[in-house]
Design a protein that fits this description.
The complex is a heterodimer of chains A (about 140) and B (about 270). Chain A is mainly α. Chain A has one domain: Fumarate reductase/succinate dehydrogenase, transmembrane subunit (3 helical TM bundles of succinate and fumarate reductases, Up-down Bundle), CATH 1.20.1300.10. In chain A, about 65% of the residues lie in helices and about 0% in strands. Chain A has 4 helices and no strands. In chain A, helix 1 crosses helix 3 and helix 3 runs antiparallel to helix 4. Chain A is extended and about 70 Å long. The mean pLDDT of chain A is about 90. Chain B is of the alpha+beta class. Chain B has 2 domains: about 100 residues, Roll (Ubiquitin-like (UB roll)); about 130 residues, Fumarate Reductase Iron-sulfur Protein, Chain B, domain 2. Helices cover about 30% and strands about 15% of the residues of chain B. In chain B, strands 2-1-5-3-4 form a 5-stranded mixed beta sheet. Chain B has a two-stranded antiparallel ribbon with strand order 6-7. In chain B, helix 3 packs parallel to helix 8 and helix 8 packs across helix 11. The longest helix of chain B has 16 residues. Chain B is globular, with a radius of gyration of 23 Å. The model of chain B has no long low-confidence stretch (mean pLDDT about 95). Classes of the chains: A mainly alpha (about 140), B alpha+beta (about 270). Chains A and B meet through helix 1, helix 3 and helix 4 of A and helix 5, helix 7, helix 10 and helix 11 of B. Bound molecules: iron/sulfur cluster (2 copies) and FE2/S2 (inorganic) cluster. The site of one iron/sulfur cluster (SF4) has 14 residues of chain B, from helix 6 and helix 8.
Chain lengths: ~140, ~270
């Protein structure tokens, strides 16, 4: 709601995708968060399902029966692909956070060459790797 | 193209329930900037249109706005470089709107102040300095790029973390904290570290890089923030290795005035 003399204009979650130049790294950022949440959701589900073993073999069997079927297999594959992306992109982020691949501060002369340009090859290599791992995982699961 | 259509987001507190877009037509003249276009509208079509500006040459940082979906300086953006005859202008997102295109930058400045963006020394020399602090050109390069910041807020408008996280300090204040942390004359790292930990600090940045992409001065806040994380990490390992601030060179005592150079005039005050 607008206060007496201000209108709120924070983008919220929309700002993950909107508000800038729609660069490659912005999408990696959004996907990193999304896959992180997905993996967390899977992890919680995993704990709930496997903890059914504590209620006896019958409960375990019925819980396992619930998570069988092609839909869950696709879901499982998506979790795997998300994990491949999140893990490899996470390595890129850690390298950047250690000051590796962002370059040294320079005199800004137009057209500016920023740390985004410097780390771009790393981002591309990491994404190719993630794609390769996801494809190999697909062969393993469905092949 | 002889005319440009400006879609300007309008909002007047107390009058409008919510912002809306209004269309204006502006004749295209050579070298027309977005700022010139806004002036044309104000002078010939609607004197009530409000925005902020001062220098008209990318120095003061007042005229940041969202132009065709990207945060830019209005004075620094020529219509022809946008490659379209439709210009959509809105106030910088992630800041409250005061009126029309005027964002409330106060929260950003308050956070900036929190980062202690000034030289801090334990020896009190900043006030009583008798000479210059010694700094090599290599030491200067560690922070020079980040000192070009004009506090326009474009990076804050583009950052996805600022968009969804109220606590996060944002690229401008963090880049400025790093600018002072890396200044060889400064000893304020321990003090700034108090603000830099937790949700306010650089660890909420996941390198979307938008801040550096939109920055009109090439400041590259994303680089400053990653380098700051490195410093914080090294500090935890006790590997940061800076123990004293650059010393004061003092006034030369044995220098002689070259012949023919007149004395400075007597001070007129004090
Ligand atoms: S870092 Fe760049 S975009 Fe951000 S406030 Fe400074 S000059 Fe503006
Ligand atoms: S690099 Fe960090 S500060 Fe810059 S836009 Fe991305 S998340 Fe925000
Ligand atoms: S008017 Fe000063 S930066 Fe645009």
């Amino acid at each position: 709601m607008p206060s007496e003399n201000h209108y709120p204009n924070r983008l919220g979650i929309r700002g993950w995708l909107f508000g800038g130049n729609f660069g490659f790294e912005r999408y990696l950022y959004a996907l990193h968060r999304l896959t992180g949440l997905g993996i967390l959701a899977y992890f919680l589900l995993h704990i709930v399902v496997t903890s059914s073993r504590a209620l006896g073999p019958e409960a375990w069997r019925s819980a396992m029966g619930m998570v069988e079927g092609p839909l869950f297999k696709v879901g499982e594959y998506l979790v795997f692909a998300a994990f491949a992306f999140h893990g490899l992109n996470g390595i890129r982020l850690i390298l950047l956070e250690l000051g590796i691949a962002v370059g040294r501060p320079i005199e800004p002369v137009y057209p500016y060459r920023t740390s985004v340009h410097v780390q771009r090859p790393l981002a591309v290599v990491v994404m190719l790797l993630a794609a390769a791992v996801a494809v190999l995982g697909g062969f393993n699961l469905f092949g | 193209m002889s005319e440009v259509i400006f879609h300007v987001r309008r909002y007047q507190p107390g009058k409008d329930a919510r912002p809306y877009y209004q269309e204006f037509r502006v004749p295209l003249t050579p070298g027309l900037t977005v700022l010139d276009g806004l002036w044309h509208i104000k002078e010939t079509q609607d004197p009530s249109l409000a925005w902020r500006f001062s220098c008209r040459m990318g120095i003061c940082g007042s005229c940041g706005m969202l132009i065709n979906g990207r945060a830019r300086l209005a004075c620094n953006t020529q219509i022809t470089e946008l490659g379209t005859s439709r210009v959509c202008i809105a106030p910088l997102p992630n800041f409250d709107i005061i009126r029309d295109l005027v964002p409330d930058l106060q929260p950003m400045f308050r956070t900036h102040k929190e980062m202690k963006p000034f030289i801090i020394r334990g020896d009190g020399l900043t006030e009583s300095s008798e000479g210059e602090f010694i700094q090599t050109s290599e030491e200067l390069e560690h922070y020079l790029q980040f000192s070009y910041c004009i506090k326009c807020g474009c990076c804050m408008a583009a950052c996805p973390t600022v968009a969804s996280d109220r606590e996060y300090a944002g690229p401008m204040p963090l880049a400025q904290a790093h600018r002072y942390n890396r200044d060889s004359r400064d000893m304020g790292f321990a003090e700034r570290k108090q603000v830099l930990g937790g949700g306010r600090g650089p660890w909420r940045c996941h390198f979307a890089g938008e801040c550096s992409r939109v920055c009109p001065k090439g400041v590259d806040p994303a680089r400053a923030i990653q380098l700051m994380k490195r410093e914080l990490f090294l500090d935890v390992l006790h590997l940061r290795g800076k123990s004293c601030a650059a010393p004061c060179a003092g006034k030369p005592t044995d220098a002689k005035r070259r012949e023919g150079i007149p004395e400075a005039p007597k001070p007129t005050v004090g």
